[in-house]
């Protein structure tokens, strides 16, 4: 009786050991007698054969952050800089991540560091500082093409920091100061030019006003009248001679 109870207990323990519970973000690649099953096991309760017949390799499908240590890079214009970055990855195919590469995370890290040095080594320092977004997209595209066969997807690449030598920082500060001084001088010169043009236009207007012709007038202390009268012929424009009257003569003067 005791032997029977022992066998029952051993069978129950063995049966319970055949069940595995996987989380929602886990996938299990099962090897049965050394051969991989075509479809990974999903989350929930799964049954595996005991005695080492089925062996499972669990793959985490959540997005992982790979920290790339500071890389010493020599740019195209022979300037030594230090660059560190982060890579965001997730596993699209758990079977390829297990079967096609020994350890997909260290392999992705080494490939990302090598690609970072290669891309930055072909560029000048000014382009690296000004085109950081384009560099991130280029590195992500290169990594995604290489890691696609491993079942790893590169979602994003971000350059965190670019360390410059102290001499280069001082040189860039002097360059920025010289650029600000150049802009200030240009602004002052443009202001002086606009003021000179304004004074020139004002002088031209005053000269034109002084040279404008005025109408002929005759003043009388008793009765101011406008010259010439209606019966006189009007002088020609810009003429200095007084107008000629054609008024009729009186009878007394004709006699």
CATH C-level category of the domain at 64-166: Alpha Beta
Biggest sheet, in brief? 3 strands, antiparallel
C-alpha Rg (nearest Å): 48 Å
Helix content: 40-55%
Question: What is the annotated CATH architecture of the domain at 64-166?
Answer: 2-Layer Sandwich
The count of DSSP E runs of length 2 or more, i.e. the number of strands, is 8
Low-confidence stretches: 236-241, 250-255
Distance between the termini: 180 Å
CATH topology of the domain at 64-166: Tetrahydropterin Synthase, Chain A
How much β-strand is present in the residues? 15-25%
Strand order, biggest sheet? Answer: 3-2-5
CATH homologous superfamily caption of the domain at 64-166: Band 7 domain
Folded structure, characterized:
With 255 residues, the chain is α+β, with helices and mostly antiparallel strands. It has seven helices and eight strands. The protein has helices at residues 2-17, 94-99, 104-121, 125-130, 132-147, 166-210, 251-254, and strands at residues 19-22, 26-32, 35-36, 44-47, 54-60, 64-74, 80-91, 152-163. Strand 2 and strand 3 form a beta hairpin. The chain starts with a helix and ends with a helix. The model is unreliable at 236-241 and 250-255 (pLDDT under 50).
Concise synopsis of the structure shown:
The strands form 3 sheets. The protein has a 3-stranded antiparallel sheet. Strands 6-7-8 form a 3-stranded antiparallel sheet. It is 44% helix and 23% strand. Among the domains are: 10-59; 64-166, 2-Layer Sandwich (Tetrahydropterin Synthase, Chain A).
């Amino acid at each position: 009786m005791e032997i029977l109870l022992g066998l029952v207990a051993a069978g129950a323990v063995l049966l319970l050991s055949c069940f595995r519970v996987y989380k929602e973000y886990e996938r299990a690649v099962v090897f049965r007698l050394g051969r991989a099953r075509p479809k990974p096991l999903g989350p929930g309760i799964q049954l595996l054969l005991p005695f080492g017949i089925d062996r499972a390799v669990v793959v985490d499908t959540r997005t992982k952050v790979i920290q790339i240590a500071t890389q010493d890079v020599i740019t195209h214009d022979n300037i030594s800089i230090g660059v560190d970055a982060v890579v965001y990855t997730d596993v699209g195919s758990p079977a390829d991540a297990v079967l096609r590469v020994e350890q997909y995370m260290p392999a992705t890290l080494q490939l990302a560091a090598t690609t970072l040095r290669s891309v930055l080594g072909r560029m000048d320092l000014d382009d690296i500082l000004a085109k950081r977004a384009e560099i991130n997209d280029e590195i992500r595209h290169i990594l995604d093409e290489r890691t696609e066969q491993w079942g790893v997807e590169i979602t994003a690449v971000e350059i965190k920091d670019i360390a410059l030598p102290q001499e280069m920082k001082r040189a860039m500060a002097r360059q920025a100061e010289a650029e600000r001084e150049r802009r200030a001088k240009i602004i002052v010169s443009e202001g002086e030019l606009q003021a000179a043009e304004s004074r020139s236009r004002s002088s031209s207007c005053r000269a034109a006003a002084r040279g404008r012709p005025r109408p002929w007038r005759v003043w009388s202390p008793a009765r101011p009248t406008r010259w010439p009268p209606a019966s006189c012929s009007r002088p020609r424009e810009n003429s200095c001679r007084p107008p000629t009257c054609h008024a009729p003569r009186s009878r007394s003067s004709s006699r």
